[in-house]
Amino acid sequence: MRLSHVPLCLLIFCASLFADEPPEPDRTELSKEEMDQCLRIAVTVAGKDMSIEGLRDVCNTLARGDSSEREAISQALAAIGNDGTEQDKDASGNSHLLERRLNMEALNRANRFLLTPHKRNYLLPVSYQENRNTAPYADAGTSLASQQSTEVEFQLSVKILIREGIFGDNGHLYMAYTNHSLWQAYYRDISRPFRETNHQPELILSFVNDWNIFGFRNVLNEVMITHQSNGQSGDLSRSWDRIMVNSVFERGSFAFAFNPWYRIPESEGDGPDDPTGDDNPDIHKYMGNFELSAAWHRKDNIVSLMLRNNLRSDNRGAVELGYSFPVSSTVRGYLKVFNGYGHSLIDYDHHTNAIGLGITFTDLF
Fold it and tell me: Residue 38 has what pLDDT?
């Protein structure tokens, strides 16, 4: 597992953002208008037993934070607007899918007791995969050379704000982390090991936008430095570093994102046993050069699609279909179907068919 030369660049970049700023006068509470607007947002995510006084206390606690916290509240309230609803509609009266999520993130990032969801967070107690990829484990001499077809799959993905408003009132810097794990939880004979865990830390510079292009509204653009690794060594090691761009568009009940990337080159090393060499020099041939995602929202159900391709004649890549539906106020059912390469890093060059059923805790919107 290697991070190449990226960490030094990240440290230098982050350090330059924390220059001293003059202190602002202390502020103890929100104005009446700000409080009313804060309550409109907070009530949508409050627990059933939360009182109005409790919500007021939360809003005032945020107001007593530092200047960056108060700025986040101000931006969230401004986005909601005076009537709390008009900003969530387009000219045709359709709801903006991502508007509410961005507004809630703007408010929540001011609260140091919260971690903001990044990608979907889900648990699939049943994930079935045919045509198992056992060759890497057999070559490494591990017990996972024998596997069960049904396992547990889950993903944990969060982000935290580092710096807000780098370019005036826009440009927010986040650190994010995504953990995707495949767990042989039902295989007692080999002590229920985790078959594969992929770690993906990211540095994200995010810009909120409001451009209209061919009838679609470009709501978000991001530049990311991403490392992805399975945390293994030797023959089981898989990792790569990328510079990525992500642009998100929406129109009515439909949203899509275009996510191209450039792989940061690594040295070849002195052979497959050299830990300083590239674990997977051909990964781009299977994982592709971009990802295209789309989602459609109807009656509180969400249908999603992910396409990944290398735009080569051999046509390797992947497609993933998702369907989520309401179960309770905090949990949604989630069905996921995957076909192609890169279901996990250990399977990057192995064609996989997988289907999983479970729940998602944080959805796309």
Answer: 76
